[in-house]
Amino acid sequence: MNAQRGDVVLVMFPDSNLRTAKRRPALVVQSDQLQAGLPQTIVAMITSNMARAGHPSRQPVSAKSPAGQQMGLRLDSVVMTDNVATVFHSEIDCIIGHVADCEPFDTALRHTFGL
């Protein structure tokens, strides 16, 4: 599956120990023009654990907001740009939504990577 930047996908997201993974939503943060020639995509984890909010690298999204509805989120969530992974296209189950305005997430990514 070739997801595009700003898509919210359901994916097997690896845990930090790299031994286990959990199916969860994630935001595609990779450029559409990357063209690395590999069947993989860079995604940022989305969690419903709102205790993770409150850091400049994390962007909260209300499920009831227009953005949350467009993203296909069922629960209030936090997009964690400080928790990214590269996943094979085969690990992406489906696209559940899309981000219309990537700027808040771009700001969080700039903080994460010091850009």
Characterise this structure.
The chain has 115 residues and is mainly beta. The chain has a single domain, classed as SH3 type barrels, CATH 2.30.30. 15% of the residues lie in helices and 41% in strands. It contains two helices and six strands, in the order ββββαββα. It has helices at residues 66-71, 103-113; strands at 7-14, 21-28, 40-47, 58-61, 77-88, 92-98. A six-stranded antiparallel beta sheet has the order 4-5-3-2-1-6. A hairpin with a 6-residue loop joins strand 1 (7-14) and strand 2 (21-28). It is globular and about 35 Å long. The model has no long low-confidence stretch (mean pLDDT 92).
Main sheet overview: 6 strands, antiparallel
What is the number of beta strands?
Answer: 6
Oligomer: single chain
Kindly identify the CATH topology.
SH3 type barrels
Tertiary shape: globular
Order of helices and strands: EEEEHEEH
- In the sheet with the most strands, the strands line up as 4-5-3-2-1-6
Number of helices: 2
The helix fraction, in percent, is 10-25%
Poorly predicted regions: none
CATH architecture: Roll
Count of separate structural domains = 1
CATH class: Mainly Beta
Question: What is shown here, in short?
Answer:
With 115 residues, the protein is mostly beta strands.
List the helices and strands and how they pair.
Blueprint: E1 7-14, E2 21-28, E3 40-47, E4 58-61, H1 66-71, E5 77-88, E6 92-98, H2 103-113
Antiparallel strand pairs: 1-2, 1-6, 2-3, 3-5, 4-5
